[in-house]
């Protein structure tokens, strides 16, 4: 009896590992395939091999060296937008979240409802009007226009997330500080912000990564190639002539996927805990 | 009559009422209360508000109602946006005005109770204290209003106009057409058929793709959580990988993988079994591919979420179940599942809402294609990608807007459920 129990358990564990193995293959295959495509010479997809006979770095070289390549500029644009977006969103949302978490004011409850509802509406729904508005203030085909949309659009979700986190910080702390004569901003700066670092890191990270992943807004807002962000530029590699530039696209994608994936994997623990505590107060 | 007059004059003689009535012209009530600095500032704010915005609001409101009267001279779309912005400015104006009335009244009440007026510094401090939360939200609120709310209101308004490719400003004026667009959506053949098929697929897509994600994520989380499994950290890291790679990159890779001519799935894998599947040109197979890809993309988030929550399930509950001789399935159904679902419900609802709006995968995989006969949306188009095409490709703005409103209503239902499941609202009684 005990013997068979043990045996059964062993078989079970083997099957579990087997299942993991299958999952690893399913996860790894597309990524590995893309990596190998980027090492294939030429751009004719019909003659590509999973294991090319003469692997080459020509596509990587092209991205950086070729005068026709805007890749480095796109990288700079994306980094610029991402940094401003990360910094700006932390400032704006933490101010809002502080007011919503700690103060009573007219419209507070409806404000929260509004965040919850608006957070579900994708920016795409208002794209026509956004474009016209940007046009009237002269910010189409401009990275600033793009930043403005990102910064405004992230408010509902992130304000709600940070507010949830602020709520978990004991109110006694700031009341004690106020007893000692600290003003509103001082409480915010010396008590709330330091204690909310984990969630602020999550907000910064999300908003840093968003411009690297989003291709739709840039596609609508930006028109000149030297203003493109990475996602849009790469999309255009394969959007124009699909089969001809996939190898180049693969090379360009791998160079953004690797740093982003590394940052992500390093910080994923904080991402999860931030999301669960902010969104559900678990 | 006489008594009435008497009580009326008594009422009017009360300082709080005098102050309120005087401040119908902002600032006068404050003067009456001998709060001169405040009165002057309010008066200046009011006058400058009126001078700077009067014209804009006047034209805006007029434009909102008429959408212009002279073609080429009046641009209906710009008038519409001006009208919406006017409404917001007007809202701010009214808020300041109401504050003025309330402020005059409360100061007068304080004076009735013989409290002396605060000094300048006290007054400023009180203003700062009471106004603080408003100052904090003001920058964000302004951005939110102009970047999210105005565009959504604009879309809402377009649904009730006749704005399309053939009837576009500045050549033509738009007009309000009531519910015509919705009626067309329900009655005109091509719109009705397209709407029904896109809507059905959107529902199937949202439910199936998201549920697959959640089931696979949950299943894997349970497996990794098993005590007998080793190398947990490594396994978790690899399982999270699809989430870490930017989604647009993965989708475009999959799009190439599924490509019938050079994609590896047909060429390298299915050719072993002597079959070819038309992944991109057959609506059914394109949908199957999309659901598989979305499962691949989406399960790691759920997996990571559940892994975190599983560790917080109280162990003594399982021990108690062991004593009672509960089977593994029973333990899962009655302990693990409720606990996990309860803790993550809002985020799971967001997953459904996210897929409902998942424009990226549909558009990047196949641009919503293949085309379908007798329909103006592609075979894999969901509502949002259809709206995108109607807006940016065929310029059917009015229909796109009408569909957006229908989507908005559905999204509000998601939001409602999420709202009910969110703990932060349950604890709102704290203040």
UniProtKB/TrEMBL annotation, chain A:
What's the chief localization of this chain?
Answer: membrane
Q: Which residues cross the membrane?
A: 12-36, 79-100, 112-134, 146-166, 187-209, 249-267
Cellular compartments annotated? Cell membrane
| An example Gene Ontology biological process | maltodextrin transmembrane transport
Asked if DNA-binding is a keyword of the record, the answer is no
The segment(s) forming the ABC transmembrane type-1 domain are: 75-267
Q: Recorded GO terms, molecular function?
A: ABC-type maltose transporter activity
Q: How does it sit in the membrane?
A: Multi-pass membrane protein
- GO CC annotation terms, alphabetical: plasma membrane
The UniProt keyword set, sorted, is: Cell membrane, Membrane, Sugar transport, Transmembrane, Transmembrane helix, Transport
Q: Which PROSITE patterns match?
A: ABC_TM1
Q: Which residues form a coiled coil?
A: none
State the family it belongs to: Belongs to the binding-protein-dependent transport system permease family.
Name the PANTHER family on file.
Answer: GALACTOOLIGOSACCHARIDES TRANSPORT SYSTEM PERMEASE PROTEIN GANQ, MALTOSE TRANSPORT SYSTEM PERMEASE-RELATED
| Annotated protein name in UniProt | Maltose transport system permease protein MalG
Q: Which organism is it from?
A: Virgibacillus massiliensis
From TrEMBL, chain B:
GO molecular function (one) = ABC-type maltose transporter activity
One Pfam family in the UniProt entry: BPD_transp_1
Q: Which keywords appear in this protein's UniProt record, sorted alphabetically? A: Cell membrane, Membrane, Sugar transport, Transmembrane, Transmembrane helix, Transport
**What function is annotated for this protein?**
Part of the ABC transporter complex MalEFGK involved in maltose/maltodextrin import. Probably responsible for the translocation of the substrate across the membrane.
* Taxonomic superkingdom: Bacteria
This protein's GO CC annotations: maltose transport complex
Where in the numbering of this chain does the ABC transmembrane type-1 domain appear?
A: 199-418
Q: Which gene encodes it?
A: malF
> What PROSITE patterns does the entry give?
ABC_TM1
Family, per entry: Belongs to the binding-protein-dependent transport system permease family. MalFG subfamily.
Q: CDD domains per the record?
A: TM_PBP2
Membrane-protein topology: Multi-pass membrane protein
Q: Is Mitochondrion one of the keywords?
A: no
GO biological-process terms attached to the record: maltodextrin transmembrane transport
Q: What is this protein called?
A: Maltose/maltodextrin transport system permease protein
Task: State the compartments where it is located.
Answer: Cell membrane
Q: Which residues cross the membrane?
A: 36-57, 77-99, 143-161, 203-225, 237-258, 284-310, 335-354, 397-417
């Amino acid at each position: 009896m005990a013997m068979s129990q043990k045996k059964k358990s062993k078989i079970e564990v083997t099957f579990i590992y087997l299942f993991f193995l299958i999952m690893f293959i399913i996860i790894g295959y597309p990524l590995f395939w893309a990596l190998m495509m980027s090492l294939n010479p030429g751009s004719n997809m019909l003659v590509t091999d999973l294991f090319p006979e003469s692997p080459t770095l020509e596509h990587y070289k092209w991205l950086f060296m070729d005068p026709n390549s805007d890749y480095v500029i796109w990288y700079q644009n994306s980094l610029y937008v991402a940094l401003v977006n990360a910094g700006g969103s932390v400032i704006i949302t933490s101010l809002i979240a502080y007011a919503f978490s700690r103060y009573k004011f007219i419209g507070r409850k409806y404000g929260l409802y509004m965040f919850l509802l608006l957070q579900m509406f994708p920016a795409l729904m208002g794209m026509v009007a956004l474009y016209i508005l940007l046009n009237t203030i002269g910010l189409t085909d401009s990275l600033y226009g793009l930043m403005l949309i990102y910064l405004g659009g992230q408010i509902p979700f992130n304000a709600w997330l940070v507010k949830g986190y602020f709520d978990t910080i004991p109110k006694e702390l700031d009341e004690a500080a106020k007893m000692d004569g600290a003003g509103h901003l001082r409480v915010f700066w010396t008590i709330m912000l330091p204690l909310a670092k984990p969630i602020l890191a999550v907000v910064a990270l999300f908003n840093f990564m968003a411009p690297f992943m989003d291709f739709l807004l840039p596609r609508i807002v930006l028109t000149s190639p030297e203003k493109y962000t990475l996602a849009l530029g790469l999309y255009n590699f394969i959007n124009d002539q699909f089969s001809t530039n996939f190898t180049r696209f693969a090379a360009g994608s791998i160079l953004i996927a690797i740093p982003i994936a590394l940052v992500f994997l390093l910080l994923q623990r904080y991402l999860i805990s931030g999301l669960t505590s902010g969104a559900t107060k678990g | 009559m006489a008594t009435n007059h008497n009580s009326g004059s008594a009422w009017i003689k009360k300082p709080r009422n005098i102050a309120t009535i005087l401040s119908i012209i902002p600032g006068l009530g404050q003067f009456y209360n001998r709060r001169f600095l405040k009165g002057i500032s309010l008066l200046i704010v009011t006058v400058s508000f009126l001078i700077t915005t009067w014209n804009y609001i006047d034209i805006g409101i007029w434009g909102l109602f008429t959408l212009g009267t002279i073609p080429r001279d009046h641009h209906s779309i710009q008038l519409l946006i001006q009208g919406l912005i006017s409404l917001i400015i007007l809202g701010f104006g009214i808020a300041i005005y109401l504050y003025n009335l309330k402020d005059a009244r409360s100061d007068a009440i304080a004076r009735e109770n013989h409290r002396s007026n605060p000094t300048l510094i006290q007054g400023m401090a009180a203003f700062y204290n009471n106004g603080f939360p408003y100052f904090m939200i003001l920058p964000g609120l302004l951005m939110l209003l102009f970047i999210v709310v105005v565009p959504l209101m604009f879309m809402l308004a377009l649904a009730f106009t006749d704005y399309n490719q053939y009837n576009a400003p500045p050549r033509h004026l738009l007009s309000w057409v009531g519910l015509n667009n919705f009626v067309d959506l329900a009655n005109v053949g091509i719109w009705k058929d397209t709407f029904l098929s896109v809507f059905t697929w959107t529902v199937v897509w949202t439910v199936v793709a998201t549920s697959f994600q959640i089931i696979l994520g949950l299943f894997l989380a349970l497996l990794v959580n098993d005590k007998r499994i080793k190398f947990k950290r490594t396994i978790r890291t690899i399982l999270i990988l699809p989430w870490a790679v930017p989604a647009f990159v993965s989708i475009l890779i999959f799009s190439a993988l599924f490509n019938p001519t050079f994609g590896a799935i047909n060429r390298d894998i299915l050719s072993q079994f002597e079959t070819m599947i038309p992944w991109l040109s057959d609506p059914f197979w394109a949908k199957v591919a999309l659901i598989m890809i979305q499962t691949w993309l989406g399960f790691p988030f759920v997996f990571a979420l559940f892994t975190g929550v599983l560790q917080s399930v109280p162990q003594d509950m399982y021990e108690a179940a062991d004593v009672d001789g509960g089977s593994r399935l029973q333990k899962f159904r009655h302990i693990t599942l409720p606990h996990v679902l309860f803790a993550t419900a809002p985020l799971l609802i967001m997953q459904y809402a996210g897929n409902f709006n998942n424009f990226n995968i549909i558009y990047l995989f196949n641009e919503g294609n293949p085309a379908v006969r007798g329909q103006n949306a592609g075979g894999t188009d969901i509502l949002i990608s259809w709206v995108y095409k109607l807006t940016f490709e065929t310029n059917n703005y009015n229909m796109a807007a009408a569909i957006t409103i229908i989507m908005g209503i559905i999204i509000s239902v998601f939001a409602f459920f999420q709202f009910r499941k969110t703990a932060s609202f349950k604890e709102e009684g704290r203040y």
